[in-house]
Amino acid sequence: MNATATTRIRFNPLLPYWAVLQTDLRQTLRSWVYRLWVFVCVLAAGGFMIYKVGIQRELGVAQSASVQTAHLLSGTGVGGLGLIALLAVSAISSERSSVADAVLCRGISRHQYFLAKWHARVFVVVSTFVVLAAAILTLHDFLFDPDLTAAGGAVAVGLVALMLTVIVSWGVTIGALASGTVTGITLFWVLLYGGLALLSLLPVSYSTPEHLLSLLKNILKSQYDSSRMVEFAGIALTSSVAAAAVGLIGFSRKDV
Q1: What pLDDT is stored for residue 102 in this prediction?
Q2: What is the radius of gyration, based on Cα positions, of the chain?
Q3: Distance separating alpha carbons of residues 138 and 168, to the nearest angstrom
């Protein structure tokens, strides 16, 4: 009697998610927007350091590394918001014509599609900033008066990275809900500037992004209140998760 062998094919439910995640990572790293953002950041950072080193040699007075690093970290993180916004908003809005095929014909759920796009854009932006920030910290520690600390540098980079996480998260969500990239970017800037205007009205005791950025030079020297850092980290992570929840719910109900 011949035994009939039965082959069971196991389907990994996360496979569509990984496929979209890997594809978006490759596409983002090859996109002209990402390369332009990195080029502008490197060019601006290099020009700033050359200028400050020239002034230091001309005056013969050592400049504080914490002050110079604070200016450059905030400029690198916030100065490229235009390109970062385009990277975030265009994650889904730029593929509006192909979303229906991906969701309906390839077995990818809308939740997996949104999460893969969100995770890919956050990872690319945050990891790129961390690499650039690490290079800036290392160079400034050699070029200027070394008053930086490892712990302070890690906290300062982490704070700016959390701000970028919130910005990218809401950018991806707005892009998923908007009818197009231009509309999404317009809504993004309206909400961003409106939110920052409201936050600026809060007392100094609140951990707002503007106030924390002004304290970066002290944070880099490990002169900070740990409770405020933890409070801001919690608020930033909560805001990012809230953005993802809004995006998941809205994108799952939106026509594609």
Answers
A1: 55
A2: 22
A3: 26
pLDDT in tens, 181-229: 888 899 998 988 888 888 878 777 777 888 888 888 889 888 888 888 8
Of 109 and 234, the one with more pLDDT = 234
Q: Write out the two tokens for 187.
A: 């809504």
Terminal-residue alpha carbon distance, the chain: 54
- Distance (Å, whole) CA 164 – CA 88: 10
pLDDT at 245: 95
Nearest to 32 by CA among 107, 94, 109, 102: 94
Instruction: Assess contact for 157 and 130: CB atoms under 8 A.
Output: yes
* Tokens standing for residue 78: 């916030």
Q: From residue 220, give the alpha-carbon distance in Å to each of 55, 69, 145, 224.
A: 22, 8, 13, 9
75 contacts 44 by C-beta, under 8 angstroms: yes
- Spell out the residues 6+ positions from residue 46 whose beta carbon is closer than 8 angstroms to its own: none
Res. 255 pLDDT band, cuts 50 70 90: low
Report the pLDDT value the prediction gives residue 246, as an integer from 0 to 100. Answer: 94
Torsion sign (Cα): 137, 138, 144, 147: positive
Secondary structure (3-state) at 145? strand
Domain locations along the chain: 15-253
Whether the pLDDT of residue 87 is over 80: the answer is yes
pTM for this entry:
0.87
Q: What pLDDT was estimated at residue 6?
A: 47
CA distance 70 to 140: 11
- Using CB atoms within 10 Å of the CB of residue 121, give its burial: 0 to 12 exposed, 13 to 18 middle, 19+ buried: buried
